Predict the 3D structure of the following.
Amino acid sequence: MIVFIMHFFNSNIKLLRTRQKRTQSDVAVSLNLKRTTINALENSISQPTVIQLQAFSKYFGIAIDTLINTNLQKLSESQFTDLQNGFDVFIKGSNIRVIATTVNSNNEENIEFVNEKAKAGYTSGFADAEFIQSLPVFHLPFLSKEKKYRAFSISGDSMLPIPSGSVVLGEFILNFNEIVSGKAYIVVTREDGVVFKIVKNRIKEKKALILSSLNPFYKPFELPVTEIREVWKFVNYINNEIPEAHTDMDCLMKELSDLKREVSEIKTKL
């Protein structure tokens, strides 16, 4: 069973259309729909399909979650300008982000597993009810029933000692401003897919996150909030291997990396 809740889609598409001085026929032609379909959607006579949601999102240049769950009529002109310029002003709020989720026969939310094969499609399919419904699911009885969880497969050595092939479990973050610097998060990005990193919250100062790896050989990088699809707070991970203990060579290489970084910083200041 799939759950996909929307609140303001109908009024939002009407508002966006009238602000852009377009008729229902104009929109219908552009989206290859009937004018009567546009009229029914705007007046809450019918609800959109997933394909229609994607089409309206692309047409107006606004994220699906914003179209569905944000009352655009309450925006100021400056907020509309920010939105149309690509900056999601809705990184905070309690009823902002929509999430497609699945439930079991007891109406309890599943933990969907985004395995290595599914990761490639998750960036575009994260809000697609049909895509989410296709994912394998499981339950962990010790987790809170008041929170939403999802599991992701990770690969590579950037987060060692958490080994490649591990499954990391994340708790859905509704408000990006609640991201705590120094903690680990699974971040779903527009261009780089699903990444698992230590995060530094710089949203207020730079409208961005700084993502770092546990492995010191990988350099931190900045990710603008406009490039973020979803954020999940790291809860735990599952792996059938015991992490290897750090060797003296590991410590030596880390110290060497730290030294090189310090020298580089000194040169920059000179």
